[in-house]
Automatic annotation (TrEMBL), chains A, B:
Residue spans crossing the bilayer: none
EC number(s) stated in the UniProt entry for this protein: 4.1.1.28
The species this protein was found in: Salmo trutta
CDD domains, A to Z: DOPA_deC_like (cd06450)
Gene Ontology MF, one: pyridoxal phosphate binding
Protein's recorded name: Aromatic-L-amino-acid decarboxylase
Protein family: Belongs to the group II decarboxylase family.
Length: 432, 432
C-alpha cells in the first residue's frame, strides 16, 4: 500500500470508525461467542501472497466484531471507563505516523519535551504541590507510563534504590544483597496507598498514612488510577489531600480523562530518584546535550526504554476540551452515577453497598449472594447492558460504573428498567 | 468534537500524514533545537476554554516538527529501525476506536483470541518448534508485550517463580525469601542470550549455551529484538538454531516487520509458567468461561494487566504484505546494508568493524577514536543523515543501520558521498 492508497483507505477507515461509534448502542454490548470462536474463522497460517484491503476490511465485521465487548457503548457499565475521544484518536494517528521512539532527548526532542510540559499542565490542573512540577528549574516532574501497574513497579524499584543508597551512605561496606533482603513493602489488600479502589472506589486515609511514611523514611506511592481524573474539579480535589506527603503519585487519564489508552501519568517529587534507579548509558544513546538536557531524559530513565509519542494525545485533548470541558465531563459522569444511586435507593428491594463518591455505584438485592449472582448472570446473558461484580465484606455486589463518553440519562434509566425487570424474575424463582 | 467533525478532521489528518511521509526526505533528519526549546513555544497551563482544531493543527508545524527526529526518513540510519507501514496505521486507527482493554478473555474475546492466533501465524513464519505454538491443544504460545525489556522482565519473573516452585517441591518447609535470595541470573554484558545485539548485531552461541541451561534447569530466554524479523527468510533462519533449548523467546516486529510500535512478541514453551507467575483473580475479572477459556487468559497473566488490541496491526500487515512481501522487505534492507558495506570496503581509508549479517554496518575510519568522534559529530551536525556510535573492543565505531521503509540505493549512495566528503575534511584537519 502506497501513500496514494493510504489517502483513500485512511478516509474510508475514518468513516468506518465514525459509523461504528455513532451506531454502537445498536450492538449487543457483550459478545455471544464461546472461547476459541475466532480460530475457526481464519486460516491457520499467514498468506504467502498479499491479500487486498477489501478482503481485510470485510473480515472486521465477520471475524472481529462478533467477539468484541463494546467498551464505548453507553450500555457498558463494567470495570472502569477506558477513555475514547476524537481529539485523542486524531493525535494518535499523528503519533503513529511520526513513529519516533523517545528513549532519550536526542531520539526525538519534541517527544520528550512535550511530555514534560504536558505533565506540568496536568499537574497544575490537579493542583499538585509545586514540588511535583518540573518547570524550568524544578526537582520533580512527571512521566507517562503504560499502566498504573507499571507506575507501581517503577515506584517500587525507585524506592528500593533510594533505600539502598540511604543505608549505604551510613554503612558503605554492607553488601547490597544483604540490604535488599531486609527491605519491606507495606500495602493494603489493594496494594499501596490507593485513592479509589477498583472494587468499590474506596479511599485510603493518606493524611494519616503520609506522616508515618515521612517520619520513617518510607517511600509513599499513591495510586489514584480511576479517581485521579476527578481531582481537576475543585469539589473533588479534597480527596487528594495528603499528596504533600507522597514521593510519587499516579493516575490514568486513559481511564476517565478522554485520553485514549495508553496514558498513565506518574509524578515524582525528585526526578533524581527515578534516574538513579534506572540509569543506563550505552554509547549509542549518548548525545551532545546529555548534561544540559539531563532532566529531559527522565523519560528514558523509566525502564521500558522505548516510548511512543503519547503526550500528543494529552495536548490535543486538553486544548480541544479545555479545562472546563474536562470538568463538565467528569461532573456529568458523577451526576449519572448519582441518578442511578437514587433509582436504587428508591427501590426497597435493593441496597447501596458503598459510598457513591464518583462514577461507581456498588449495589445489590437485599438477600443472599446466590440471588445476586443469578441476577448478574441474567443481566450479562441479556447482552443489552454489561456489569461486573465485586466482593465487599463477603458480600457479592454488583458494580455499576458509568463508562462511555456518550452515556446519557436515558441509558441509565433503560439500564435500571432492565435490572429491575430481571430482578423480579429472579426473585420469583429463587428464595431471597 | 462530534462524529461529524471527526469525519472531516480525520480525513484531513489522513492527508496530513500522507503528505508528511511522502515528503519526509526534504526535512532535516535531525532537529536543530536546544534542550527546552518547546516550553517557550506553548502556554504554561492548559486553556480554560476549548480551542479550535485549526489552532491545534497549525501548531504541529510550529511546535512539534522542529523538534522531531525523523525516524522514517530514508536518511535515518541511527539506532535500529522502528516499523511504520500504512496497513499497521490503519489497523491502529481501528484499534483506537474499538478501544477495548484486553485484560481477560471476557473483557474482549476478539482481542485475546486474535492475539493468540496471530502469535501462532508469526511463530509458524519463523518455523518455531511446535512446542511454542498454541494451536488448539498446545502447552506453549505467544503474547504481545510492549518492549523487549518488558519481555525480559516477564521471563525473569516467570523463571524465578518456576525455580521457587521446583525447590519447594523437594523442600516444602524452606522459606521463599531464603530461596529467592540464592537465585542467580546469568547474562552477558548485553544481557540474556541475545541474537543480534544493539551495538553490533552480534549473535550469542545459543547452540552452546542451550544444552547447559537445559542440563542445569536454568530458564533460557532468547532476545532477538531486532534480528528476529529476519528469521522469516529461510536463508536467515539458521541464526535461530538452538531455539529448541529455549524456555522463552522474544523479538520486536515493531522494529523490522512493518508492525508499528508497540508490538514485542514473546513465546513460551509452557504457558503455565507465565500464568503461575502472574495469576491474579479478583472477582471483577472472573467470567463464565474462566476454565474452558483459561488458556486464552495468558494475555491477562502478563503483569501489565491492561492491553490494547495490538494484534490487529499484525493481522493487517501479515495479510496485506503476505509472507513473500515481508521477506522481500527484509532482503531489501540486507541488500542495502551489503551495498553500503561494499562502498566502505572499496575505500582504503575505512574499515568494517563487525560482520555485516543483517541490516547494520559497523565501520570506522582507520585511525584514532578522536578522528571518528569528530567525523560522527560533523555528520550529525549536517542534519542530512543521522547515525549513532557504538563501542567495540575499546574502539569508537559508527553504526549505519538501514532503517526506513522507503530507503533506496540512491539514499545509501548519497549517504556515503556525504560521509566521505566529511571524512576528507576531518582528515585534513586532524592527525589521523
Amino acid at each position: 500500500m502506497d501513500a496514494a492508497e493510504f489517502r483513500r483507505r485512511g478516509k474510508e477507515m475514518v468513516d468506518l470508525i465514525a459509523d461504528y461509534l455513532e451506531n454502537i448502542e445498536q450492538r449487543p454490548v457483550y459478545p455471544d461467542v464461546e472461547p476459541g470462536y475466532l480460530r475457526s474463522l481464519i486460516p491457520e497460517e499467514a498468506p504467502e501472497e498479499p491479500e487486498t484491503y477489501e478482503d481485510v476490511v470485510k473480515d472486521i465485521e465477520r471475524v472481529i466484531m462478533p467477539g468484541v465487548t463494546h467498551w464505548h457503548s453507553p450500555y457498558f457499565y463494567a470495570y472502569f471507563p477506558t477513555a475514547n475521544s476524537f481529539p485523542a484518536m486524531l493525535a494518535d494517528m499523528l503519533s503513529g505516523a511520526i513513529g519516533c521512539i523517545g528513549f532519550s532527548w536526542a531520539a526525538s526532542p519534541a517527544c520528550t519535551e512535550l511530555e514534560t510540559v504536558m505533565m506540568d499542565w496536568l499537574g497544575k490542573m490537579l493542583k499538585l504541590p509545586e514540588d511535583f512540577i518540573a518547570g524550568t528549574h524544578g526537582q520533580g516532574g512527571g512521566v507517562i507510563q503504560g499502566t498504573a501497574s507499571e507506575a507501581t513497579l517503577v515506584a517500587l524499584l525507585a524506592a528500593r534504590s533510594r533505600a539502598v543508597r540511604m543505608i549505604l551512605a551510613s554503612d558503605p561496606q554492607r553488601p547490597e544483597t544483604d540490604i535488599t533482603s531486609k527491605l519491606v513493602a507495606y500495602s493494603s489488600d489493594q496494594f499501596c496507598a490507593t485513592l479509589g479502589t477498583t472494587p468499590s472506589c474506596a479511599f485510603d486515609h493518606i493524611t494519616e498514612l503520609g506522616p508515618i511514611c515521612n517520619a520513617e523514611k518510607i517511600w509513599m506511592h499513591i495510586d489514584a488510577a480511576y479517581a485521579g481524573s476527578s481531582f481537576i474539579c475543585p469539589e473533588f480535589r479534597p480527596l487528594l489531600n495528603g499528596i504533600e506527603f507522597a514521593d510519587s503519585f499516579n493516575f490514568n487519564p486513559h481511564k476517565w480523562l478522554l485520553v485514549n489508552f495508553d496514558c498513565s501519568t506518574m509524578w515524582v517529587r525528585k526526578r533524581s530518584d527515578l534516574i538513579g534507579a534506572f540509569k543506563m548509558d550505552p554509547l549509542y544513546l549518548k548525545h551532545d546535550h546529555q548534561e544540559s538536557g539531563r532532566y529531559f531524559d527522565i523519560t528514558f530513565s523509566c525502564y521500558s526504554q522505548s516510548i511512543r509519542f503519547r503526550s500528543l494525545k494529552m495536548w490535543f485533548v486538553f486544548r480541544m476540551y479545555g479545562l472546563k470541558g474536562l470538568q463538565d465531563y467528569i461532573r456529568k459522569h458523577v451526576e449519572l452515577a448519582k441518578e442511578f444511586e437514587s433509582l436504587v435507593r428508591a427501590d426497597q428491594r435493593f441496597e447501596i453497598s458503598a459510598d457513591v463518591v464518583l462514577g461507581l455505584v456498588c449495589f445489590r438485592l437485599k438477600g443472599s449472594n446466590e440471588v445476586n449472582e443469578t441476577l448478574l448472570k441474567r443481566i450479562n446473558n441479556g447482552r443489552k447492558i454489561h456489569l461486573v461484580p465485586c466482593q465487599l465484606s463477603g458480600q457479592f455486589v454488583l458494580r455499576f460504573a458509568v463508562c462511555a463518553r456518550t452515556t446519557e440519562s436515558r441509558h441509565i434509566r433503560e439500564a435500571w428498567r432492565l435490572i429491575t425487570q430481571l430482578a423480579e424474575e429472579v426473585m420469583q424463582e429463587l428464595p431471597n
